[in-house]
């Protein structure tokens, strides 16, 4: 409790201590007044700016430099005009350049932001937190993003329909933009007043200039915009879009002799419909029927020896659009009440496969349909509702005689998410809430044998069907409230949230939940939790409270606390890595706002945190400092150092007692060249060392980027990691009724290299290649058992087996711990070599705005190498010399805008 008191005192006293150092002066808000076209013909979007309709308004300019030397005249000036009619907003830009032959016209995929560009940001809700951004490069490539968190989050997954064209002439370059009013959201009002900003990148000098000055010490981006006036009597546009799609897919893979499900190839044909309906101009209903949620780009390869799940970012279009509205990160890292990749996940049920049997198991859960209702109203309500139903998935098992049985591996499941936020206090405060529900139709465990004379001969079941879902929870609910309050021109803030979860299921399911690594109720030394095999539900809480300074002057800081109770469970529809933790944290940052002869910008950041569990154990404290500097020549350096004098973990022994690591120091150093150049590179290292050589970590990073000409870019990112650890967990065994926790010295090495090639035929026709070989090898030696898991001395923490206690044969270790000549227990050889290669070759053609054709070739190889071989030998044996699995896919969409 004393730590909470200290934090609250800090939140109250520190803002007043530093307020005298604020240097932000009041910046006058600029206003641009647009006019309607009325009876005039709208401008033709060809980049020429020669239509008479542009003459009804004046140019506005006088841009000011924003980076690197804020509040100084820019190297080149910019001006723009805005006009409108009842359906479109039109923008014209004149970007002056005294050396037009040096304008950088690099091509890229959409949202690539390469070369010279200019963008308009529109805060159509005028909430000073969110906005819509439309960017056009000198080469004609579009970029569009939804801005949230007052400029701290730019979501490039938003892909509206809009039109643009550019031209280069003797004065520089020009652009014209036509934005359908149906693609942005605004409330009904006689005169609209929107937040407005225009931002230009002058590539040669890596300089940003803006229409509305925003000081470097400002507390945000959107809150500092100027204003757009003159939008009179425009009617909210009710959006109606229908997008049917068709997909053909052909898979090839190595044939397996005798396996009827792996005969070498498979053909699939699929089709469906996506629709977007504007209920009002503020709120949109997204519908999908039989959706195609295949990813164009594969997830990166990864392997986790700690037993925890790995977080992968969402890449499916239906879920990424408006995802900011559903976001509810409540603690730190990736913890989130809603993690959309739970919907359509890999089937979770187990299969009791016998020798000589072959399995046809679905790789993903089929999404029968989904609907999403989302948007933000003029009066400050953000609303999001998502409903989705996934199909019951059944695996087919066939033996060598052709007899079949079936296993239910995923039940019919309903997912629901509701999210709401309300702005008030002149948009300086919001309060929100979230509710989620997951309900599974588990039925009853059953097994039916069609050869049994008592079985109904008309049964549709083939052979035997098994329900293997006893470990799944029947239902899961979560809810929470959150808030944020800003004051003193948004320089200071306090925010917090709270989460409540409740899961229900069979005794088997809830007992399994208690013993998951996330909870670890079976820990023998835990005084506050224990496994109760008779429970059928769990209820937990989580949340955070944090406050600090986000703008004004050179200092930024915050401090706070978050917690996750032992019974908190969110992984049915959210993401929760670990429960049973209370964390106190404090951060401070110092900004070097004015460029010098050495650097363009720089900052220093320091952090401290400590953690506890709900049993009162003081588990960790960490100190960390890092610095970043961007030199005057646009080269850069990032470096950091940290110290962990106290490290205890409740999860390392995966159900065993609390474990202590030796104290650790860690550091990183990265530096790189000017990213604007045709060739750029990054070199980096990060690593750690623990006392008594308990463990260490080394990661070496090289990133190479090359753009030989405007249409082609290449990148290579090899990484090599070493993870030696003298106490890597292996397994738990029974020794005369006493649990033995086995660890060992592991020599783990991992090599990966992502490769990307982008070729842009024109802004709407691109070819992209992504490939990544991944190899991880672990060799275990010096096996030992845990003696005193919390001892400070490593030699007391574990006891090594002597040579006369351990023997190895037939890929199994046998232990005679008491040296009586009899084997006390055994465990399998844990050595491993995991090898994987994934690649995608994608041709994307946006043949009309919003309608696309994809040609995709995906290739993958996954195998187990020889742990005794070096990494490159496994690469050759398991990837280069192995027949890959191939997927050839054609997907076509057509977007009707009504």
Topology:
Elements: H1 2-19, E1 31-33, E2 35-36, E3 64-67, E4 78-84, E5 88-96, E6 117-123, E7 131-137, E8 142-148, E9 153-155, E10 163-169, E11 172-180, E12 191-202, E13 207-210, E14 226-232, E15 240-252, E16 265-278, E17 283-289, H2 317-320, H3 323-326, E18 357-360, E19 367-376, E20 381-390, E21 393-399, E22 404-410, E23 412-424, E24 429-441, E25 447-449, E26 464-467, E27 475-487, E28 492-504, H4 507-515, E29 537-549, E30 555-564, E31 581-592, E32 599-612, E33 618-631, E34 636-649, E35 659-661, E36 664-672, E37 679-690, E38 696-709, E39 712-722, E40 725-735, E41 738-762, E42 765-786, H5 794-797, E43 798-800, E44 806-809, E45 812-815, E46 825-828, E47 832-848, E48 851-864, H6 871-880, E49 885-893, E50 896-897
Parallel strand pairs: 1-14, 2-4, 22-26
Antiparallel strand pairs: 3-13, 4-5, 5-11, 6-7, 6-12, 7-8, 8-9, 10-11, 12-13, 12-14, 15-16, 15-49, 15-50, 16-17, 17-19, 18-21, 19-20, 20-23, 21-22, 23-24, 24-27, 25-26, 27-28, 28-29, 29-30, 30-31, 31-32, 32-33, 33-34, 34-35, 34-36, 36-37, 37-38, 38-39, 39-41, 40-41, 41-42, 42-43, 42-47, 44-45, ...
Offer a concise description of the structure.
The chain is mainly β and 898 residues long. The protein is built from six helices and 50 strands.
Description:
The protein is mainly beta. Among the domains are: 31-237, Immunoglobulin-like, CATH 2.60.40; 273-448 and 475-579, no CATH class. It has a 24-stranded antiparallel β-barrel. Strands 1, 3, 6, 7, 8, 9, 12, 13 and 14 form a 9-stranded mixed β-sheet that branches. Strand 29 (537-549) and strand 30 (555-564) form a beta hairpin.
């Amino acid at each position: 409790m004393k730590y909470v008191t200290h934090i609250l005192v800090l939140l109250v006293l520190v803002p007043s201590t530093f307020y005298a150092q604020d240097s932000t002066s009041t910046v006058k808000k600029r206003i641009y007044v647009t006019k309607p076209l009325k009876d005039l013909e709208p401008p033709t979007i060809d980049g020429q700016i020669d239509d008479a309709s542009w003459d009804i308004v004046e140019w506005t300019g006088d841009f000011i430099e924003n980076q690197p030397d804020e509040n100084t005249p820019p190297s080149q000036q910019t001006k723009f005009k805005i006009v409108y009619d009842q359906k479109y907003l039109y923008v014209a830009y004149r970007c002056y350049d005294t050396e037009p032959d040096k304008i950088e016209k690099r091509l890229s995929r959409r949202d690539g932001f390469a070369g010279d560009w200019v963008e308009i940001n529109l805060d159509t809700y005028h909430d000073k937190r969110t906005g819509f951004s439309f960017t056009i490069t000198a080469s004609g490539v579009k970029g569009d993003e939804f801005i949230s968190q007052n400029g701290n989050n730019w979501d490039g997954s938003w892909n509206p329909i809009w039109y643009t064209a550019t031209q280069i002439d003797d004065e520089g370059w020009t652009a014209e933009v036509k934005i359908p009013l149906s693609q942005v959201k605004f409330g009904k009002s006689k005169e609209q007043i929107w937040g407005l900003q225009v931002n230009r990148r002058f590539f040669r000098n890596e300089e940003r200039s803006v229409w509305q000055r925003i000081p470097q010490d400002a507390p945000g981006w959107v809150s500092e915009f100027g204003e757009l006036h003159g939008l009179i009597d425009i009617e909210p546009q009710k959006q109606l879009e229908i997008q049917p799609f068709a997909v053909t897919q052909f898979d090839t893979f190595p044939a397996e002799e005798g396996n009827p499900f792996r005969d070498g190839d498979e053909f699939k044909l699929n089709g469906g419909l996506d629709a977007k309906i504007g209920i009002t101009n503020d709120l949109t209903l997204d519908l999908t029927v039989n959706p195609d949620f295949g990813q164009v780009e594969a997830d990166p390869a990864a392997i986790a020896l700690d037993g925890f799940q790995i977080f992968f970012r969402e890449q499916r279009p239906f879920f990424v659009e408006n995802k900011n509205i559903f976001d509810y990160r409540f603690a730190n890292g990736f913890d989130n009440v809603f993690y959309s990749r739970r919907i359509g996940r890999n089937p979770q049920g187990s299969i009791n496969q016998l020798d000589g049997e072959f399995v046809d198991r679905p790789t993903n859960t089929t999404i029968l349909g989904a609907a999403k209702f989302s948007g933000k109203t003029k009066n400050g309500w953000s609303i999001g509702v998502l409903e989705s139903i996934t199909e019951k998935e059944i695996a087919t098992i066939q033996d060598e005689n052709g007899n079949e049985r079936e296993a239910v591996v995923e039940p019919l499941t309903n997912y629901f998410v509701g999210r709401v936020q309300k702005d008030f206090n002149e948009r300086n405060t919001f309060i929100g809430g979230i509710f989620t529900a997951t309900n599974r139709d588990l039925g009853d465990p059953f097994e039916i044998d069609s050869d049994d004379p008592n079985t109904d001969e008309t049964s549709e079941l083939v052979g035997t069907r098994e329900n293997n879902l006893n470990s799944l929870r029947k239902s899961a609910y979560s809810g929470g409230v959150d808030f944020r309050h800003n004051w003193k021109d948004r320089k200071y803030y306090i925010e917090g949230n709270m989460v409540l979860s409740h899961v229900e299921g069979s005794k088997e399911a809830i007992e399994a939940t208690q013993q998951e690594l996330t909870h670890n109720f079976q820990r023998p030394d835990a005084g506050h939790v224990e496994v109760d095999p008779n429970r059928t539900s769990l209820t937990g809480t989580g949340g955070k409270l944090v406050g600090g300074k986000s703008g004004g002057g050179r200092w930024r800081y915050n401090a706070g606390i978050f917690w996750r109770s032992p019974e908190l469970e969110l992984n049915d529809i959210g993401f929760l890595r670990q429960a049973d933790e209370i964390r106190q944290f404090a951060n401070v940052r110092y900004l070097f706002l004015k460029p010098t002869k050495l650097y363009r910008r720089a900052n220093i950041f320091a952090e401290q945190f400590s953690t506890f569990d709900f049993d009162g154990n003081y588990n960790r404290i960490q100190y960390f400092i890092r610095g970043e500097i961007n030199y005057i020549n646009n080269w850069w350096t990032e470096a950091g150092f940290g110290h962990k004098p106290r490290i205890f973990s409740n999860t390392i022994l995966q159900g065993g007692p609390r474990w202590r690591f030796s104290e650790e120091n860690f550091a990183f150093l990265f530096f790189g060249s000017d990213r604007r150049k045709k060739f750029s590179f990054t070199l980096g290292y990060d690593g750690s060392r623990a006392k008594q050589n308990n463990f260490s970590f080394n990661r070496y990073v090289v990133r190479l980027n090359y753009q030989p000409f405007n249409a082609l870019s290449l990148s290579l990112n090899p990484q090599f990691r070493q993870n030696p650890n003298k106490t890597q967990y292996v397994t738990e065994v029974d020794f005369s009724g006493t649990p033995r926790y086995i660890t060992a010295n592991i020599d783990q090495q991992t090599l990966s290299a992502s490769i990307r090639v982008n070729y842009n035929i024109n802004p709407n026709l691109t070819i992209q290649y992504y490939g990544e070989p991944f190899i991880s090898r672990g060799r275990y030696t010096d096996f030992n058992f845990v003696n005193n898991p919390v001892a400070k001395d490593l030699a007391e923490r574990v006891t090594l087996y002597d040579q006369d206690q351990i023997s190895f044969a037939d890929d199994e270790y046998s232990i005679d711990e008491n040296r009586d000549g009899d084997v006390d227990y055994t465990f399998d050889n844990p050595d491993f070599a995991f090898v994987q290669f994934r690649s995608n070759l994608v041709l994307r053609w946006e043949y009309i705005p919003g309608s696309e054709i994809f040609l995709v070739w995906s290739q993958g190889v996954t195998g187990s190498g020889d742990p005794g071989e070096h990494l490159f030998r496994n690469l050759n044996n398991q990837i280069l010399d192995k027949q890959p699995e191939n997927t050839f896919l054609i997907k076509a969409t057509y977007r009707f805008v009504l």
